[in-house]
Amino acid sequence: MLCDNAFEGRVWGGAVIKIITMFRPTIIVHGGARQFTPDTRDLVQEGVKAAARQGYAELTKGGSAMDAVVAAVSAMEDNTVFNAGHGSRLNLKGQVEADAIVIDGRNLGSGAVCGLQGCSNPVQLARLVMEKTNHCLLTADGAREFMESQGIAAVPSSELVTERARIELEQHVKFSSAVENLVAPRSAPPPSSSCDTVGAVAMDANGNLAAATSTGGITAKLPGRVGDSPIIGSGAYADNTVGAVSTTGCGESIMKVCLARRVGELLEKGKTAQEAAEHALEFMSGRVGGAAGVIVLSQYGNAGACEVGHHFITENMAWAAIDEGQLRWGVDPGQEMNEII
Amino acid sequence: MFEPAIIVHGGAGTHPSEWKKREPYLAGVKDATLQGHAKLARGGSALDAVEAAVIALENNPLFNTGHGSVLNLKGNVEMDAIVIDGRTLSSGAVCGVRGCPNPVRVARLVMEKTNHCLLTGEGAQDFMESQGILPVPDSQLIVPGMRLAWEKAVLTDKASSLPAASQRTASDLPPGCDTVGAVAMDAHGNVAAATSTGGTTAKLPGRVGDSPIIGAGAYADSSVGAISTTGDGESIMKVCLARRTAELLETGVPAQESAARALRFMHEKVGGEAGVIVLAKDGNRCHVARHFISTTMPWVAVNNGCITWGIDQGQEESASLE
Q1: Which residues hold substrate (chain B) (predicted)?
Q2: Which residues on chain A are in Cβ contact (under 8 Å) with B90?
Q3: How many domains does chain A have?
Q4: How does pLDDT run across B218-236, given as a tens digit for each residue?
Q5: pTM higher than 0.95 for the full model?
């Protein structure tokens, strides 16, 4: 479905009636599903709220859902508290390898990058993959060459690596070598190791939907490891006739069940955004284990508004949503704070 | 006890119309299928069977995978592959991997030896070497036909990275330029899927298509069935074609119709051509089916003591397995 303007034609008993439909611009963002430590909790909350505001600002000035999700995710990539862009977690070699995706609900157009080094804003490069190539996903050196062909210079690793990420890698390596002496090599990573990602979904004033997700992956991942984030149907999904989804959490679990697509299937079967989020996560947890979080927008309803859903089965998930002049946010299960904007 | 079955495809596209030129494709897929079936007959797992079938096709220079892969814009070989174990939904995959004679084997190692589902680029190559698999130079993987196709694409500006993929006609592609895959069920009722490809001729370096993506290039769940896809990678990815086929199976739609409806949805929604092989669980048996909206797709199946095969639309020949 293409919604280039706010007019919609419907046929009633043979007559064609043009209806002016006002769509309610909406955005919801997440800053990762994991257990947040006390020192990062406030920063993460403020970070998702700021990202939601930036995305919403795009919507209110007439920008597209795609503009909004890219703006929101870029804000979180620039914020070193989040595991994306600056502040990304490090692989086993101490490098940042980024994965990101955008999906346009109008035509299912998509662009993504994975295993990308030297990029400050992977989500913006993902958008360029969609707009400037005939492909949906570019990896590693090829992605980097494409980035440079677009006039974006690679940034040195030192600019993307934070002290926090470096310490987390050191702790993880120390923990793993201690654990290896006691249990089988493939034991679970320590709790401080994060499996989180940032993302956003939005609906614009024309009723179009878009989704974006971006991540540095997991601390001490094998070099070249790609998780769910850049994968259509896993890290994100968007279709104007269905809804828009972004996921975060245990990447391998999300991939195995195609979590974002599963949320889409449930929306198609008539579940609300909230129900779809909850049921999909319940299925994932039961079938393959692991924990994750999901943000969802449904297709717009009669009043031009879409349903907003979020659910997580991790300890926390930082999220923030804006519609109808109200900003809502939370970090703990069941928590919802709000303020008028 | 379950009656094992397997179905294998050698790529959706436009194969030569002369029998003399198309027969080797069918023969290659048949050989791969029998190799996979032999694993099942000896009590091997569905995973062993699909891996064996795909390895046979990777080793066959006729097919766009492993030896015989197409070349990217720079004239290099970059491959993608996946395996999925329907018992646990575990998966292993590689994308953008170079110097790898059997990507599907490395994909299985990713699943069995790491905590991850997908490795890319240099990391994938380092992992491959850590498993004792030596990289091979591109010269060992490139065949004259694919080099010729690359030269033609690059010189005549028909590179797949330039015009819209959905506007490419089948005649733009070199013959048999596509992905291979297999799905199987073993005597324990477990299913598995595997898909492997060199991608598209003159693709942008680093371009990854549907093949290594769970839900796009393959899907497997022992409570439902298994699927492998081939064709216009970007179209397949956008609609999560393999997962979409499985969704239909889950609602009780028969295998053939699931494949057909999923492909019709894809074509109407985003354009492009593709093919699908499906194995659907049904009690202690299964149904195997295939559907494609390209001109041709060589496929071979073994089920219920019968071997069936085809390459053209609507073609299905069969013989007793003996």
Answers
A1: 207-210, 230-233
A2: 256
A3: 1
A4: 999 999 999 999 999 999 9
A5: no
